[in-house]
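Q: Convert this sequence to structure tokens.
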Amino acid sequence: MHGASRYKLGEILVVAMIMVIVLSSGCVFPGGGGDTVNFGPGVRIVTWEPDLKDQPYRSGDRVKLLLKVQNMGEYDAKDVRAELYGISLTEWGAVWSEEDLGDLKAANERYNTPGETRTKQWILEAPVLPKGTEMVYEPKVRVSYDYTTVATKPITIVDADELRRLIHQGKTIPGEPTRYTSGPLSVEIITGDFIKTEGRDPYLPIHIIIRNVGEGTISNEGYYGWGDVEMDYPIEVTVKVPHTMHIVGGEECTGGSEVVEMWQGREAEVTCEVTVEPVEISQKEIIEVDVKYRYQVDATTQVKVIGEELGFF
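A:
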């Protein structure tokens, strides 16, 4: 009996040691909810390829082009469309070039679900070429969609007397960085670490820098297909300040939504001037910037066609 007990005790110790190693290494068992959602730059083209990948087609063969996209960002993608181009649709027997992919839900970090995916196919016919010849074609696809990026920056408003007291105590008010939702654009809100109030309303500049960090470009169609915007790479910017602040200046900052142009599709800057109401001691507020735009990404694949005599003999 004592030998059996020692044997069981040894088993328990081995299992316990394995559990400690697994838990300390960060591994989890299946179904344990340990995986995390991976965010990326908006809608990504996951697959764009023919059904016979890396193999040639003969003239007249049926060719299937498969497109798969996934929303990797933190906002739902609206009005997602895919357009086939780069080849002659007539030569390839295509009757349409554009596909409506609908809306794609964003990933959900709370429920640990990835962003929504969608697939579409174009069914084509390899073009007729003279026998003994071959040609490599490059069908391209453009996926466009409406998207939103939301940026927030906490900022502390402090009374002048309170600030002097903190300085005498050797304390500081640390600044906090801008946080923006995952997508193809980044947003940086630049202010001081804090705002000091006096007996009068001080002026505060808010500098906003918006950059294209995605894999594509801003579409000139604009968000929801603005038809009257005569500019390249348009984005709609809305600056929201708390009730303790008031926007009083800035060419592209009026308190409403303004359409601005991203220079060469890469970057845009907006500067606002605000006044700040006095506070008794200090309080933390949030500045928010919403950016709406239409974005597009492209992909290219290759299809090799070998010529063959067709017809009746």
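The helical segments are 2-24, 160-168.
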